[in-house]
Fold this protein.
Amino acid sequence: MVTNFSSTFLSERNLYKVVKQLLSDEGIRLKKKLSQTFLIDREELEYISNKVKESAPNYCCVVEVGAGIGNLTSYVAALNSDKIVIAIEVDKRFAKILKALQEEFPNIDIVIGDALKIIPSMRGCSIVIGNLPYHITSSLLVTIAKSSFDLALITVQKEVAERIVSKAGDKSYGKITVFLQHLFEVNYIKTIPQYKFYPKPCVDSAVILLKRKKSYDTIAQLLEHLIKCLFSFRRKTVGKAIKNCLKGFRISELYRFQEIWKKRVYQLSVEELEKIAYIIANQKTRK
Ligand code: SAM
């Protein structure tokens, strides 16, 4: 039987001690390859949980990716008692600990499995949260973008967060920036320094909020393929890259956009890339 740590997570000031004790009691050695590092700062846990409440006041359920030992799960469940918190965790060793949390918070549901496989079939839950496992951040971001979530309040490596909110021409501007900014309004919420996690990761993290603008439709699909190819010619002129990426299309229709033709690929704004995708989509439907 696992000691019920839920109230301890919420009441103890020193979460470092609580987490270490819990792991040692359960004989769990953390796995780096699953990005197992836990947020142990009460203020940050409260901040994220309150942000869920503020951003999604009328939603009835929250999905958490990578619940781990349930440190964030218990805060979110306690501060959002009107919502069901579906906690997804791939590591079976945490199942017992998460089940013990359910005794105190019946609004927690546990799903043991791979979030990458589970999310695509999830319906009816509009917000996803989580301190994403770093080794699969990109795949999770793409999976979330293609899902039916309206909101994502997620913690990622600071460098990834900066990439997501970057602007055309920035060093970190890339295909994930364009893909996410096409589908979401993206907001950098706050930085969380390394020392607020146990074990301490190598880099700082940041919380971002993605608010859905569009669903993943045929245009988004086309844009996804287009930017994958164009950004493999990142520093080449748009003209050259387009000739390589759009073989078989009438690119003459793009000639009227004189302003984009001489730019470098990394200087193309999201709107300009969307414009190209719309023109190509039009040709496809006319064929
Ligand atoms: N929720 C805790 C927190 O916020 O402190 C832990 C976050 S920790 C960075 C990431 C968690 O994701 C780990 O518990 C890890 O086991 C889990 N995880 C890793 N890969 C996963 C996957 N494919 N599906 C679901 N969970 C995964």
